[in-house]
Amino acid sequence: MVEKACKACRFVSEGSEKCPNCSSDQLTEKWSNYVYVEDPANSEIAKNIGAKAPGKYALNIKS
Ligand SMILES: [Zn+2]
């Protein structure tokens, strides 16, 4: 399965047509590096990238 990153919220999902996090269909395979956010409420990284749900978030997305 190809992992795709959402251009709107950076959420990384596998085999989805739509982002399970924000329902955007702007997904791309052209991304690199990710952070795993386990506890968004207590994570500085999550605040920096605007993550609200636990999961993988892409750091670099090519537009
Ligand atoms: Zn999204």
Short description:
With 63 residues, the protein is mainly beta. The chain is built from 1 helix and 5 strands, in the order ββββαβ. The radius of gyration is 11 Å and the shape is globular.
What descriptive keywords fit this protein?
mainly beta; three-stranded antiparallel beta sheet; two-stranded antiparallel sheet; 5 strands
Mind explaining what this structure looks like?
This protein has 63 residues and is mainly β. It has one domain (3-61): Rubrerythrin, domain 2 (Single Sheet). The chain has one helix and five strands. It has one helix at residues 44-49, and strands at 3-6, 12-14, 27-28, 31-37, 55-61. It has a three-stranded antiparallel sheet, with no helix packed on it. The longest helix has 6 residues, at 44-49. It is globular. The model has no long low-confidence stretch (mean pLDDT 95). Residues 6, 8-9, 11, 19, 21-22, 24 line the site of zinc ion.
Proportion of beta-strand residues: 35-45%
Helix content: under 10%
Total DSSP E strands: 5
- CATH class categorisation: Mainly Beta
Question: What's the CATH architecture?
Answer: Single Sheet
Low-confidence stretches: none
List SSEs in N-to-C order. EEEEHE
Radius of gyration: 11 Å
| Average pLDDT score | 95
Hetero groups: zinc ion
Strand order of the largest sheet: 2-1-3
**Domain module count:** 1
N→C terminal distance: 21 Å
The gross shape turns out to be globular
- CATH names the topology as Rubrerythrin, domain 2
Q: What oligomerization state is this entry in?
A: single chain
The helix/strand class is: mainly beta
How many individual helices?
1
Largest sheet: 3 strands, antiparallel
